[in-house]
């Protein structure tokens, strides 16, 4: 995802001199090409995330389109006051790009995990939130963010996520994408864990269970129409996210369903209100924290049994 974002940002900057790349020390190396070719469109603020966000708001007020890039906890928590007051309250045209969604920084521990950011950013007025599932989708949301006049938060993984699309598609802000059909249970997923949900659907198909997988790359505004339609079609909903079950995708989907009066079997699969535990490979840490493919499959089976 990171490389897809960087290549898209480079292309955008080559076409529009108002596009600027702002970093907080980390990411300086991966921006080598950008910095060399567009020196007047790049600023490294050092380990000063709050300053970066405030400066981005100032640049936006002068007609620039700054993309602020750093690790998610440092962007969404350390600089939260600046995001709220300088960017969202003023509706400044600032793009906040967080790297390291979920527990993908699995060897660095809870300080570098991002399991609260969707909840934190969802409550901010004027904020659009993208959570792409793959490299191709990262390109799509980056391009879309550049054309939105207002604050945008992009939640990215790292550089090793598999592709879930076998061909190009028409990305639309606020719209979900059905990845596979099924009539027994709907799996709503966001971010790189959508790949796991897709693999689980194929596994369940071998058991005679039809799992409909819907990827929701836009968390805000969310695709309420598709959520209700899919829920009513299958009668059972499982949300799948590498995030705390409080405030993230599960909360967003449940809000939509309750307001629509959709009475279906419902469960949330995510980090169950605790800090991520364990160190090691990403897949191992997901298993330690109950968000592995096996956990997704068993949660889906349980919902189907309850129907």
TrEMBL record:
InterPro entries: PDH/Transketolase, THDP-binding, Transketo_C/PFOR_II, Transketolase-like_Pyr-bd, Transketolase_C
Pfam family, one: Transketolase_C
UniProt cross-references to CDD domains, sorted A to Z: TPP_PYR_DXS_TK_like (cd07033)
Domain Transketolase-like pyrimidine-binding: 1-163
Gene3D superfamilies: 3.40.50.920, 3.40.50.970
Keyword tags: Thiamine pyrophosphate
Organism domain of life: Bacteria
Cofactor field: thiamine diphosphate
Alphabetized PANTHER family for the sequence: PYRUVATE DEHYDROGENASE E1 COMPONENT, TRANSKETOLASE-LIKE PYRIMIDINE-BINDING DOMAIN-CONTAINING PROTEIN
Family: Belongs to the transketolase family.
Protein name: Transketolase
Species of origin: Heliomicrobium gestii
């Amino acid at each position: 995802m990171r490389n897809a974002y960087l290549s898209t940002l480079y292309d955008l900057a080559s076409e529009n001199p108002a596009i600027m790349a702002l970093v907080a020390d980390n990411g300086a190396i991966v921006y080598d090409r950008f910095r060399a070719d567009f020196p007047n469109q790049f600023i490294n603020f050092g380990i000063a995330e709050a300053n970066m966000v405030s400066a981005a708001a100032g640049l936006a007020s002068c007609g620039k389109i700054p993309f602020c890039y750093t690790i998610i906890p440092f962007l969404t928590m350390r600089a939260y006051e600046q995001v709220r007051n300088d960017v969202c309250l003023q509706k400044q045209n600032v793009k906040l790009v967080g790297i390291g969604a979920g527990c993908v920084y699995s060897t660095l521990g809870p300080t570098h995990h991002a399991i609260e950011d969707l909840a934190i950013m969802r409550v901010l007025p004027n904020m659009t939130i993208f959570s792409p599932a793959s490299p191709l989708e990262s390109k799509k949301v980056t391009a879309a963010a550049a054309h939105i006049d207002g604050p945008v938060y992009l939640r990215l993984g790292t550089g090793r996520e598999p592709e879930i699309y076998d061909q190009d598609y028409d990305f639309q802000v606020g719209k979900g994408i059905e990845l596979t059909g099924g009539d027994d249970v709907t799996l709503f997923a966001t971010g790189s864990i959508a790949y796991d949900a897709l693999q689980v659907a194929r596994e369940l198909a071998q058991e005679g269970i039809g799992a409909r997988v819907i990827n929701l790359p836009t968390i805000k505004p969310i695709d309420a129409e598709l959520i209700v339609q899919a829920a009513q079609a299958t009668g059972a909903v499982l949300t799948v996210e590498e995030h705390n079950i409080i405030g993230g995708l599960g909360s967003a989907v449940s809000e939509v369903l309750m307001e629509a009066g959709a009475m279906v079997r419902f469960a949330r699969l995510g980090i169950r209100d605790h800090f991520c535990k364990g160190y090691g490979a990403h897949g191992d840490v997901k298993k330690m924290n109950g968000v592995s493919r096996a956990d997704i499959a068993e949660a889906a089976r349980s919902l189907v049994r309850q129907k």
